[in-house]
Design brief:
Oligomer: single chain
Number of strands: 12
Strand content: 15-25%
Largest sheet: 4 strands, mixed
Organism: Dipteronia sinensis
Shape: globular
Distance between the termini: 44 Å
Protein name: Reverse transcriptase domain-containing protein
InterPro entries: Retrotransposon-Effector_Assoc
């Protein structure tokens, strides 16, 4: 088969072949990717203290209202009819077409979960399909995992390996591909990182970058899960960047991919000094950043 996985390197760099060994590599990779240690209370408190309230009491009261049957029906009929069927093969179209028959049961189960906290564990089994990022795949990072989700609560993943359902992992963090609320979750979580940076700027331990002599100071720009941080080329600010990223990672569970992170410095900074500052942050230094969404950075 064109998309068959013949073998993979494990974490120790050993080449593994055969379905059982490939399954072990895949399961170990995702177990480590989605595992999390207990969140340090000190770091969580620091993130929360950096946030400023932005909702009125009226908005908070509205968000606390219980779900009703109309909410469940609207959610089902807002789904694309033939996209993302579950492991049972039934797309949203089935439930929409036969809502008069299956709707009451779905509504009852959903309201018990949403309003009463009843477990939906038996409904949470999910499949992950590994999509190639490149023609020749040798490591797990060469794949893009696409999950086939049925709900947005705690999920147990299995894997489609060479057409066979294998393994099982219960993720403790991370967002599922196609999650309708993922943009909002990114915004909510990144607000914590933004708060830490703003607090550091207010305390003058992180200066940011001034756009011209009379222009505004920019400390950071966020777009979805991409982040641009601006600072002076000093040891103190680079140490503060690394500290903020470490606190944010421990508090949120979201890890920075330092292998894909880069730093560029002003042309007035010596190359050796730029390398030293990049090493403090833990990223590689590049001459200039590549294009982003088709547009040049500068």
């Amino acid at each position: 088969m064109r998309n068959a996985i013949d073998g993979l390197f494990d974490d120790g760099g050993v080449w593994r072949e055969g379905n059982q060994k490939i399954e072990s590599v895949v399961t170990n990779y995702f177990s480590g990717l989605f595992s999390v240690v207990k969140l340090p209370a000190r770091d969580v408190d620091e993130v929360f203290c950096s946030l400023q309230p932005c909702l009125s009491q009226q908005s908070c009261d509205y968000l606390d209202l219980p779900f009703i049957a109309k909410d469940i029906r609207r959610a089902v009929f807002d789904m694309a009819p033939t996209k993302s069927p579950g492991p049972d093969g039934l797309p949203a179209l089935f439930y929409q077409k036969y809502w008069e028959t299956v709707g009451p049961s779905i509504t009852e189960a959903s309201l018990k979960c949403l309003n009463d906290g009843e477990s939906m564990r038996t409904l949470n089994e999910t499949l992950i399909c590994l999509i190639r990022k490149r023609l020749v795949v040798e490591r797990m990072v060469d794949f893009r995992p696409i999950s086939l989700c049925k709900c947005r609560m705690t999920v147990r993943f299995s894997f489609l390996i060479n057409g066979t359902v294998c393994g099982s992992v219960e993720p403790l963090r991370g967002l599922r591909q196609g999650d309708l609320v993922s943009p909002y979750l990114y915004l909510l979580v990144l607000e914590g990182l933004s708060g830490l940076i703003r607090e550091a700027v207010d305390q003058n331990v992180y200066i940011g970058f001034r756009c011209g002599r009379t222009g505004p100071v920019i400390s950071h720009l966020f777009f979805t899960n991409d982040s641009l941080l601006f600072s002076g080329a000093t040891t103190e600010e680079c140490l503060e960047i690394r500290r903020i990223l470490n606190v944010y990672s421990r508090a949120s569970g979201q890890l920075v991919n330092f292998d894909k992170s880069e730093m560029c410095v002003s042309l007035t900074i010596f190359s050796s000094e730029g390398d030293r500052l990049a090493a403090i942050v833990g990223v590689r230094r590049v001459k200039c950043h590549e294009r982003y969404l088709g547009l040049p950075y500068w």
